[in-house]
Amino acid sequence: MQIKPKSPLSSWTSLTACALAVALLLDAALSLNGLVPDQAALFPSAVASLEAVATNVLPTGMALAGFASGIVLAMAVIMLPMHQIYRSREARLLQERERLAAQNARLVHQAASDGLLGIANRREFERVLKLEWRRAARERQPLSLLMIDIDCFKRFNDTYGHQAGDTCLRGVADVLRSAAARPGDMVARYGGEEMVVLMPHTSMEGAMRMAERIHAMLAERALSFAASPVAQHVTVSIGVSSMLPVRNGNRSVLVQQADEGLYAAKEAGRNRTAVVPNLRLIGHDEELRTWTHRAQGT
Hints:
The chain is an alpha+beta fold. The protein has helices at residues 8-32, 44-112, 122-139, 153-160, 162-179, 204-221, 252-267, 285-296; strands spanning 143-150, 186-191, 194-200, 236-243, 273-275. A 5-stranded mixed β-sheet has the order 2-3-1-4-5, with helices on both faces. It starts with 7 loop residues before the first helix and ends with a helix.
């Protein structure tokens, strides 16, 4: 399909119309500015109409523009200080929130720790034991516990005084923290001079090694106790329990079993580790009997 070229007549008509429009606008602009006398204007009526429009509209527009500018300036004068106050208040609120969060963290830590020894308290131990029991049951992993008691601690207090007794407790707690260095292990004060070490993912064999490490570290620390009937330094007796938790099982059995082991260690002469193999202990019976004989020195 061929496009017919435009005729010269139509092109000339378009150019003429554009020229007249430009001339009209130029003449009107010059007349408004006084550069062309009214008599010399090409289109007096159009110029008069534009002058009327300019006379009515321009002052009104300028007034509106000035009014709007005043409003914007006033808002800027008012809003800028308010914005600065808001930012300052926001910064103070953020600082206060951080302070309250830090204070809350300190309160939570204080509520969960023993004030004298700096390790977890009995309540925190019970809470973590509940969580670790469920996790071990879900993952089918062993959970072990050491129940630790300072040998003849009453005699230590009677000999050296309660202030020295507090120092002794802190020394033993430091040894337990150093021995139980894994992130998942937990050292807690169970009551009086009794402390516990909770060890997730740890079998009976691993728990016995931990107990042996504690005995060795206490002997190396050599906290003086000349009045002790066991040794010339502070010693501990340890009961060990290790179980494979089940979802609906009674977690208190783990503690009771460790306590029975602790009683057996004291009855056997103190400064040793004992195991009472019953219930769902980890390992074979022969292995458990071997560990018990080794711990009791038989």
